[in-house]
Amino acid sequence: MIELLIMVIKTTVVFGIVLTHVAYTTYAERKIIGRAQARMGPMEVGPHGLLQPIADFIKIFFKEDIVPINAEKFIFQIAPLIVLIFTMINLTVIPFTSNFILADLNVGLLFILASASVSVYGIILAGWSSNSKYSFLGGLRSASQVLSYEIALGLSLAGVVLAAGSLNLRDIVIAQHNTALGVYAIPQIIGFVVFVIAAFAETNRAPFDLPEAETELVAGYLTEYSAFRYALFFLAEYVAMYIMASLCALCFLGGWTIPKFITDILPFLDKVPGIIWFAIKVYAFIFLYIWVRATFPRYRFDQLLNIGWKVLIPAGLVNLILVAFLKRFM
Amino acid sequence: MVELLFGYFAIVIITSALFGVTRKNLVHSLLWILLMFVHLGGLYLLLNAEFLAMVQIIVYAGAILVMFLFVVFLLNLKEETKEPVFIHSWQGRIYGVLILLFFALFGAFTYKKTHTGSFTIELIDKQGHTKTIGTALFNEYLFPFLILGFILLVPLIGVGIVAVRRKANGTS
Predict the structure, then answer these.
(1) Nearest partner of A285 among A254, A318, A316, judged by Cα
(2) Phi, psi (deg, nearest 5) at residue A132
C-alpha cells in the first residue's frame, strides 16, 4: 500500500515537472525565435514576459469547446486524448538518474517506439473525424510521414541496441559509460545524425511540420480544434519533444553520466549529480529544436519522403552494419 | 489477480474483434481492431513475453493497421456499405458457426497447463525473454527465418516493378 502511494507521488512529481517544463518551453521558444528575428519576444506579462505561458494556459482553458456539426463527435473528442496519453506514458520508462525511474522495463526502448506508433492514430483520427479537407490532408500527411520516419528512427536505435546489447534504457546508459569514448554519438555518428533528423520528423516539428503547414493547410489536423482540446495536442507535441530529447540523451549522449576521460582530467565533476548532466543534454536538444525552427524553411512533401526513404533508411542500414562490424572485430 | 487480468483481456479481445468485423463504417472497425491489437499485446505481457508484446504493438498496431487506414482513406471508402448483412445464404452462416465451434473445441482440447520442451519457464526467467527469443531465432530457426525474409522481399520487389512499369507507360 505504501509502495503504491510512493509510486503515485513519484509519478505526480515527474508529470508536474514535465508540464512546467512544457509551459516554459513555449516561452523559451518564443523568446529564442524572437531573438533570432531581432525582436524581443513576449515582454508584457510579468518581468520579461515570464508569466506569459501561465496567462496563455488560463486563457485557453476558458475558451469554448467547439465540435463541428459534421464531425464524428466521439472520435473527434477522444483523438487529442489518445495523443496525449500515449505520449505521457513514455515518461514512465525514462531513467532520469541512475536510481530514479518510474518503471524499469526490460524493453524500455521498444515501449517508447510502441507508444509512439500508437499515438500517431490520434493525429490521423483527428484529421479524419473533423470532416474538413485541410484536417484530412494534414492527417494523411502525418500518417505517411510518421510511417516513413519510424523505420529510420528504429534503424538508428538498432545500432545503439546492438552496441549496448540491451533494450533496457538504464543498461544502455551504463554500457555506454563503460566504453572508451563514453558516448555513442561519436562512434555511431551516422546513426546519431539519422536519429536527430528522424526525431524532428516524428514529432512533426519544423522543418518537417507538414501535417500543420499553415501556408497550405491552415493548421492541418488542428484546424477544427479549439480550446482545451487544442491545448492537449499542443501539450502532447511538446511532451513528445522532451521524450525524443531524453531518448537522444540516453541513447547517444550518455544519459546522466559524462565520459570517463573527462572525469579523469577534471575529477571534481564526479560530484555533480547526474540529473544535472541529463538536464543539460535534454535542454541542448530542445534548444536545437527551436533553433532549427527559427532557421530552416519547410520542406516540400515529396522532398520529405525522399529524404526519409532514399537517404535516412540507407544511412541507418550502413550504420547498423558498421556497428555490427565494430562489435564483432574490436 | 492474473486470472482477473486475463479475463479482462480475453473479453475485450473477443468483443472488439466482433465489433471489428460487424461495423459498417470501415474506420470504426479498424479502430476496434486497434483496440484488439493493443489488448493482445497485454495478453503477451501476462505470459512474460514482453518483447513479443511490444513488437505486436509496433508491427501490427503501428505499421500494418496504419497502412490499412491509409488504404481506406486513399480509396475514399467513406460511404458506408448499404447492404444490411454481408452473408446472405444460410449455408454460409452455418459454415461460419461450425468453423468457430471447431476452433473453440480445438483450443479447449489441446489446452495444456505446463509447457514441455527445451525453453522452460525457468530458463526464460533466468536469461530474459528477449535474449531467449534471439538465440532461438538465430540458431535453431535460422533457416525458416531467412526464408520468411525472402518471402517478404518478393512483394517488395513486385510493388517496385509495378510502380516502375506504370511510370514507363505514362499512366501514373
Answers:
(1) A254
(2) -135, 145
3-state secondary structure of A197: helix
Q: Are residues A29 and A104 in the same domain?
A: no
- Say what the alpha-carbon torsion angle B161, B162, B167, B169 is, to the nearest 10 degrees: 110
Is cis: bond before A207, omega within 30 of 0? Answer: yes
Residues 111-140 of A with CB under 8 A from B: 111, 113-118, 120-121, 124-125, 128, 136, 139-140
C-alpha span between B17 and B29 (Å, rounded): 9
Q: Locate cell 507535441: which residue?
A: A237
Q: Does A143 touch chain B (CB under 8 A)?
A: yes
- A238 and A154 part of one domain: yes
**DSSP annotation of A95:** -
From A144, which residue of chain B is nearest by alpha-carbon distance? B70
**Whether B70 and A144 lie within 8 Å, measured CB to CB:** yes
Provide the whole-model pTM. 0.82
Residues A84, A131, single domain; the answer is: yes
Which chain B residues are closer than 8 Å to A147 by Cβ? 63, 66-67, 70
> Same domain for A32 and A80?
no
Q: What phi, psi does A100 have (nearest 5°)?
A: -115, 105
Claim to verify: residue A83 and residue A108 sit in the same structural domain: yes
pLDDT at position B172 is 47
Q: How distant is the Cα of B39 from the closest Cα of chain A, in angstroms?
A: 13
Write down the mean pLDDT value for chain A.
Answer: 84
Q: Tell me: ipTM over 0.90.
A: no
Task: Mean pLDDT check: name the lowest of A275-289, B24-38, B78-92.
Answer: B78-92
- Asked if residues A120 and B66 have their Cβ atoms less than 8 Å apart, the reply is yes
Q: Which residues of B touch A128 (CB under 8 A)?
A: 27, 73
Whether residue A125 is found in the same domain as residue A246 = yes
Domain range for A29 is 1-62
The count of domains in chain A is 2
Q: Which of A62, A83, A114 is the last residue of a domain?
A: A62
Q: How many CB atoms lie within 10 A of CB B30?
A: 20
Separation in Å, CA of A206 to nearest CA in chain B: 23
Cell numbers representing residue A265 in the block? 582530467
Residue that terminates a domain, selected from A42, A62, A82:
A62
Nearest 5°: phi and psi at A259?
-55, 150
Q: Are residues A71 and A35 in the same domain?
A: no
Q: What is the pLDDT of residues A224-272, one digit of tens each?
A: 787 788 888 888 888 988 998 988 888 888 878 888 777 778 777 777 7
Hey, which residues does A97 pair with through a beta bridge? A100
